[in-house]
C-alpha cells in the first residue's frame, strides 16, 4: 500500500482548482472558465480575476535551480526528425564539475523529461536542471517545435497543441530517446518521465521503445492500451494524486495488465493531492510533501534501473 502523506491545506476552493484543471486540458475554453469562476464564487467575495490569477503558473516561485547555476551546463539542441521532416528542439542539461571546470567525464544515465500540454515552459526546464543535480543528463523536448515552439504563454501553448502532428511528434520523441542513448556522455540507459500529457507519453514510449528504455516514471499520465503493455521492458513507477479521480480509477486496470505481463512496476497514490500536484509553479495544485516524496522515489527508481552498480 502507498504510504500516507499528510495533506496540505487548500488555499482556494477545491472546485476552483478542478475548473483550472479542466481549462488547462482544453475541456472548457477561457470564457467558460472565467464565467464559471465568477458565477460560482461571487457570493464568497472572490472575483473571477483574482481566482484566475491565483491559479495561473508563477514560474519564478517554482524555480528551484537557477538557469545560471554553476553546477550544471545547459544548451538548446535540435534533434532531426527520423522521417526527414524537420526537427524537434529541446533543453539539454548535464552536471558540471567545479573541480575540473568541465562536464563530468563519467558516462551518465539519461532522462527524457516531457512537459504538460502547454509546451516547454520554465517549470519543465527547471525539472531538467534538478535531474542534472542528481547526476543525470536530461533532455526536455518541446512538443510545440513544429508549430513555432512554446510561446511563453501557457494558454497560447495549449491552443497550439491542437495544431501538432501527433504521429510526427511520437516519432520525434523516439528520436530524442535514441539520441540520448547514443550520446557520447551517456551510459546507454535512458529513462523517461513526464507530467499529464508527458506522463501519458512516458507510458506510450515504454511500449514503443521496448528494451531501449530502462525505466519510466509517469506523473498523472494516461495508461497505454492494455494490449500494448506486454511490449514494455522498462521498470514503471506510477504517480497519481488521490483526488485525480479519473486516473486513479483507471490505474488498477493498468496495474493488472503490468502484473500479468510481468512488467516490473510500482504505483503510488498520494492522499490529498490533485492533478498536477508536483508542479510547484502552480501553488494551488502543488502538494509539497507529496511532490518531494514522488521526486525522491523517482530518483531512487532511476538510479536503480538506469545506473550501473557503483556508478
CATH superfamily of the largest domain: Alpha/Beta hydrolase fold, catalytic domain
CATH architecture title of the largest domain: 3-Layer(aba) Sandwich
What is the mean predicted local confidence, pLDDT?
Answer: 89
Helical amount: 25-40%
Name of the level-1 CATH class of the largest domain: Alpha Beta
Beginning-to-end CA distance, first to last residue: 31 Å
Global morphology:
globular
The beta-strand count equals 9
- CATH fold descriptor of the largest domain: Rossmann fold
Kindly name the structural category: alpha/beta
Low-confidence stretches: 1-10
Portion of residues in beta strands equals 15-25%
- Helical stretch tally: 10
Rg for CA atoms: 19 Å
What does this structure look like?
It is a single chain. Helix 1 (14-24) runs antiparallel to helix 2 and helix 2 crosses helix 3 (48-55). It is globular, with a radius of gyration of 19 Å. Residues 1-10 have low confidence and may be disordered. It has ten helices and nine strands. It is α/β, with parallel strands linked by helices. A hairpin with a 6-residue loop joins strand 1 (72-80) and strand 2 (87-97). It has helices at residues 14-24, 30-41, 48-55, 59-62, 122-133, 154-160, 166-182, 197-209, 245-260, 288-306, and strands at residues 72-80, 87-97, 102-103, 108-114, 137-141, 186-195, 215-219, 235-241, 265-270. Strands 1, 2, 3, 4, 5, 6, 7, 8 and 9 form a nine-stranded mixed sheet that branches. It has two domains: 10-56, no CATH class; 65-306, Rossmann fold, CATH 3.40.50.
Amino acid at each position: 500500500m502507498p504510504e500516507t502523506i499528510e495533506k496540505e491545506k487548500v488555499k482556494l476552493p477545491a472546485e476552483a482548482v478542478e475548473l483550472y484543471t479542466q481549462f488547462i486540458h482544453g475541456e472548457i475554453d477561457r470564457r467558460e472558465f472565467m464565467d464559471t469562476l465568477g458565477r460560482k464564487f461571487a457570493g464568497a467575495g472572490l472575483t473571477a480575476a483574482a481566482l484566475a490569477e491565483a491559479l495561473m503558473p508563477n514560474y519564478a516561485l517554482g524555480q528551484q535551480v537557477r538557469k545560471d547555476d554553476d553546477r550544471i551546463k545547459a544548451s538548446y539542441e535540435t534533434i532531426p526528425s527520423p522521417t526527414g521532416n524537420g526537427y524537434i528542439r529541446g533543453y539539454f542539461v548535464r552536471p558540471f564539475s567545479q573541480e575540473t571546470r568541465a562536464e563530468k567525464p563519467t558516462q551518465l544515465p539519461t532522462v527524457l523529461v516531457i512537459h504538460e500540454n502547454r509546451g516547454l515552459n520554465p517549470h519543465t526546464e527547471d525539472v531538467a536542471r534538478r535531474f542534472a543535480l542528481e547526476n543525470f543528463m536530461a533532455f526536455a523536448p518541446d512538443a510545440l517545435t513544429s508549430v513555432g515552439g512554446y510561446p511563453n504563454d501557457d494558454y497560447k501553448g495549449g491552443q497550439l497543441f491542437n495544431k501538432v502532428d501527433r504521429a510526427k511528434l511520437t516519432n520525434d520523441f523516439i528520436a530524442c530517446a535514441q539520441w540520448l542513448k547514443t550520446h557520447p556522455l551517456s551510459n546507454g540507459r535512458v529513462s523517461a518521465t513526464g507530467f499529464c500529457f508527458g506522463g501519458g507519453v512516458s507510458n506510450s514510449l515504454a511500449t514503443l521503445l521496448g528494451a531501449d528504455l530502462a525505466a519510466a516514471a509517469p506523473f498523472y499520465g494516461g495508461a497505454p492500451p492494455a494490449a500494448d503493455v506486454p511490449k514494455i521492458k522498462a521498470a514503471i513507477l506510477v504517480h497519481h494524486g488521490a483526488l485525480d479521480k479519473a486516473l486513479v480509477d483507471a490505474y488498477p486496470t493498468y496495474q493488472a495488465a503490468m502484473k500479468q505481463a510481468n512488467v516490473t512496476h510500482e504505483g503510488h497514490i498520494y492522499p490529498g493531492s490533485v492533478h498536477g500536484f508536483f508542479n510547484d509553479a502552480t501553488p494551488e495544485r502543488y502538494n509539497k510533501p507529496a511532490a518531494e516524496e514522488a521526486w525522491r522515489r523517482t530518483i531512487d527508481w532511476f538510479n536503480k534501473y538506469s545506473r550501473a552498480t557503483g556508478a
